[in-house]
Amino acid sequence: MARQAGQGNQIKSVLAWVRIALFALFSAFLGTMISRDGADGPFPWGLLISLLLIFVVSLLARRDKKIAGVGMCLVFSSSMAWILALLPGAGGSILVPIASPAFTTFFSAFAGYIWLFGLIVVQIITALLPGKWFSGKK
Asked: Which of 85, 66, 75 minimizes the C-alpha distance to 21?
């Protein structure tokens, strides 16, 4: 009976790691898609929502698997975002445009940089938060 309980815990642990990886990939994909929304206007709401999404996913990873979970989230999310940024899409278009003379505002010119480096910084901040916030003990 104890062996079956141990196997159940192993399955839960593996599923938690898979969930972290999938959430990190999905949030980076979605964040890349919406990070430029509003960048040409006065308020870059897409960038803010994208970074908030990454922050929430990394908080959940930290809650489930502590620092290792945030590390895994960081690897998967930043890999996805940078792959999407560096590889051209259909017809040669790019998903994270950077430094074009057509950009007229600060955020339109630097939203790509802020997104790609901001998602790393946000997750490092999550890793540096006090561990007692995630322990569930009072």
From this structure: 75
Could you give the angle at the alpha carbon of 84 between the alpha carbons of 118 and 80, nearest 5°?
A: 65
pLDDT tier at 136, thresholds 50, 70, 90: low
Give pTM, 2 decimals. 0.85
Residues 92-123 have pLDDT tens digits of 777 777 766 667 777 888 888 899 999 999 99
79-83 contact pairs (CB < 8 A, 24+) = 79/28, 80/24, 80/25, 80/28, 80/29, 80/32, 81/28, 81/31, 81/32, 81/115, 81/116, 81/119, 82/116
